[in-house]
Automatic annotation (TrEMBL):
The lineage of its organism: Bacteria, Bacillati, Actinomycetota, Actinomycetes, Kitasatosporales. GO terms for molecular function: endonuclease activity; nucleic acid binding; zinc ion binding. Residues 357-415 form the HNH nuclease domain. Residues 50-61, 157-167 have a biased composition (Basic and acidic residues). This is HNH endonuclease. It comes from Streptomyces inhibens. InterPro entries: HNH (IPR002711), HNH_nuc (IPR003615). Residues 36-89, 156-176 are annotated as: Disordered.
Length: 441
């Protein structure tokens, strides 16, 4: 009984809140003064009442007039705000660190480790995220504005245009027009090609489809010549590719397609668009790109616009280019594996030479330097007898990833050797005991 009296006294002492504007119910005293309704049904009823009392047609909406644009002098850009770093508009010469982060290096902004799979630009700048990258840019701009960084003192990146011009001149030497045919099925590469692309008078045959090439001036296509020269810098000479079977043609300069058309096709043809030729078959124009290496081992690309019945692989690699790519992949994997093991020991960005494992295997004549038995080159990992690189001075003892410190070994022999030092029993192990190789079953 006393508890009920105490509760009634407490309720009587509590201050009353505002009443609902629809139903008049007293709301809690702690409700904000901006709240006029006690519940959602009351709020919906108030909106309905407002729409009834003020119809939409009684108060039309007044739109603000748009500002009229008057011609005048364009604004002058501020050089201080539009200045770019000489040679690189992306600020890489300023923001780049001494070397690319592999993973685990501290961020230059927040100190967190840089992820191993971060964007290459972030790893170049040793930042862990886009947020830290933006903060680094802002801090760098502030330092430039204060005069702490001199833009003119930053060296420009190496100019490779001269080397590219020399390569283009070498590959584009004067030659007579010729026919590039499809090779036999057992050939190492399916197509014939030469240089950077077709010249006037060349004929390219791909699986029975024949495309001829000539300059627009030689075909008296003055409208195409005028179109190209009016919308490009310099006096570029447009080329025209003529397809024999479909009767279509394509006008281009370098890697830019300017115009394409067919006999029974009113609209303009686009690269990759299917159409029906005069022979009644379906055709498609495609840019054929072939990657190859020149006599000095530098890569280049042959490009030719050809008309085909079926789409093919957009980029083809010659055997020489594929071998170079496979070699670079082997070198990169061996270097990354060594550096990952060094990071486990607390050494970041460990120096490692670009060593091709196959060159070490060939040097050792595919003989395991631990058990002195032959290594089968056809056996692949994870077979126990597959070939691996063994560090003569172990990585755990600071062995370097160099040609003189590497030797060929079976995978199982390499595992059994562990942290021992040297081939066979020539050197002592880390514990001072000689390493003995057991015969592999």
């Amino acid at each position: 009984m006393d508890e009920d009296l105490a509760a009634e006294a407490a309720n009587a002492a509590e201050p009353a809140g505002r009443s609902c504007a629809i139903c008049g119910t007293a709301m809690e005293y702690w409700r904000p003064r901006s709240q006029k309704y006690c519940s959602d049904p009351c709020r919906t009823a108030a909106a309905k009442k407002q729409r009834t009392e003020r119809p939409k047609g009684d108060s039309p909406k007044v739109r603000r007039p748009k500002a009229t644009l008057t011609p005048g002098t364009p604004p002058v850009p501020d050089p201080a705000r539009t200045r770019k770093v000489p040679g690189d508009p992306h600020w890489n010469p300023i923001l780049a660190a001494a070397g690319r982060a592999i993973g685990g290096e501290p961020c230059r902004i927040c100190g967190e480790p840089v992820p191993r799979k971060a964007h290459w630009e972030h790893r170049d700048r040793h930042v862990c995220s886009s947020r830290c990258n933006d903060n680094l840019k802002r801090l760098t701009k502030t330092r430039i504005r204060r005069g702490e960084i001199d833009l003119l003192a930053i060296p420009e990146p190496a100019d490779r245009s001269a080397a590219k011009s020399e390569q283009r001149a070498q590959l584009s030497q004067e030659r007579a027009p010729q026919v590039f045919r499809t090779r036999e099925a057992d050939a190492d590469f399916p197509y014939e090609f030469r240089g950077l692309g077709p010249i006037s008078g060349d004929i390219v045959e791909r699986n029975g489809s024949v495309t001829a090439y000539a300059t627009a001036a030689s075909l008296a296509a003055d409208h195409i010549v005028a179109l190209v020269r009016n919308h490009s810098d310099g006096d570029e000479e447009p080329m025209i590719a003529l397809h024999e079977q479909s009767g279509s043609c394509l006008a281009y300069t370098d890697s830019v397609v300017w115009w394409g058309g067919a006999a029974d096709h009113r609209d303009r043809l686009h690269l990759g668009q299917r159409f029906r030729g005069i022979d009644g078959n379906s055709w498609i124009w495609q840019n054929e790109a072939i990657r190859d290496l020149d006599s000095e081992g530098r890569k280049y690309t042959w490009e030719a616009y050809v008309c085909l019945a079926e789409t093919t692989t957009p980029i083809l690699w010659t055997p020489a280019y594929s071998a170079r790519s496979a070699k670079q992949l082997r070198i990169r994997r061996a270097r990354n594996s060594y550096q990952a093991r060094m990071r486990e020991r607390g050494v970041l960005n460990a120096a490692a030479d670009g060593v091709d494992p196959y060159e070490i295997y060939e040097r050792d004549q595919w003989i395991c330097q631990l058990c002195h038995q032959t290594i089968d080159s056809a056996v692949q990992w994870p077979d126990l007898r597959s070939a691996t690189l063994d560090h003569i001075k172990p990585v755990t003892l600071g062995g370097a990833h160099t040609v003189v410190n590497l030797q060929a070994a079976h995978w199982v022999c390499n595992v059994r050797k562990g942290d021992a030092w040297g081939p066979g029993a020539q050197q002592g192990s880390a514990t001072g005991t000689p390493f003995q190789v057991r015969e592999v079953d």
